[in-house]
Amino acid sequence: MVAPPPLTPVPEDWNSALVVVAHPDDIEFCGAAGAVARWVRQGKTIVYALLTSGEAGIDGVDPARTGPVREREQLRSCAAVGVDRVEFLHRADGYLENGIALREPIVRMLRRYRPEVVVTLNYRPRWGHRGGELNQPDHVAAGHALVGALSVAGNRWLFREQVEQEGLAPWRGVRQILAAGSPAATHGIAIDETFDQATAALAAHRVYNLGLRWRDFDPARWLAAITGPTGARMGVGHAVAMEVVDLTAGA
């Protein structure tokens, strides 16, 4: 078997990021919470925007009960990595579609928080670079809606009520998209020093984790199985793989 190629360290010459994902737990299950914890330690400003509350995520529990629980768990998860600003956008879990209705609130988040970098989860159709498990459709829709939002957030004539009525100026300042867990990843972020925080962030989704009914699920063991092999590609113990989309090329 051919060993996967080495990963290049993700550029970290920026100060603010907006994390845009479909559900509570999306950032935690791939280990990217460890990258967030690293950035918080560096003094960067990190904001989370959760498109849904993950209310359809626990079989046998009505979404009306699940949503508030998962929001509370996400807040505890964010606290574990030092993030204190979280927006829940309350779109319907399991029904995300890439289009204007989903693009509009993401544009609002971009204009409100004006990040230099946006972080999301793998939004390619599959997880593995040689096929692998199909990606969840909400992840795919969320990522593509984010890309669409980035392309129009700087145009004052699109979603103009945000500019004219809400006082949100157009924003063209995003330099990179970082897609965690992408099969097309060429970069990585070492998280040896924040692995314990990443574990605590995943463990904070206690009710959801129990709802999965996975026998003997252990957050640390789960994450080590992902971040250990990725770390080997960077010569460290633990790392998170990222696909980096440079938005400054040709600018």
What would your notes on this structure say?
This protein is α/β, with parallel strands linked by helices and 251 residues long. It has a single domain (8-246), classed as Rossmann fold (3-Layer(aba) Sandwich). It contains nine helices and ten strands. The chain has helices spanning 26-29, 32-41, 63-81, 100-113, 137-152, 160-164, 195-203, 206-212, 219-232; strands spanning 8-9, 16-21, 45-50, 86-88, 117-121, 126-128, 131-134, 176-180, 187-190, 239-246. The protein is globular and about 50 Å long.
Number of domains: 1
Mean pLDDT: 95
What is the C-level CATH assignment?
Alpha Beta
Low-confidence stretches: none
Q: Main beta sheet, described?
A: 8 strands, mixed
Q: Cα-atom Rg, whole angstroms?
A: 17 Å
Instruction: Give the overall shape.
Output: globular
Q: State the secondary-structure class.
A: alpha/beta
Question: Number of DSSP helices?
Answer: 9
> Beta fraction of the residues?
15-25%
CATH topology name, in short, is Rossmann fold
Helix and strand run: EEHHEHEHEEEHHEEHHHE
Distance between the ends: 40 Å
Helix content: 25-40%
CATH architecture annotation: 3-Layer(aba) Sandwich
DSSP E strands, number: 10
CATH superfamily membership? LmbE-like
Biggest sheet strand order reads 1-9-10-8-5-2-3-4
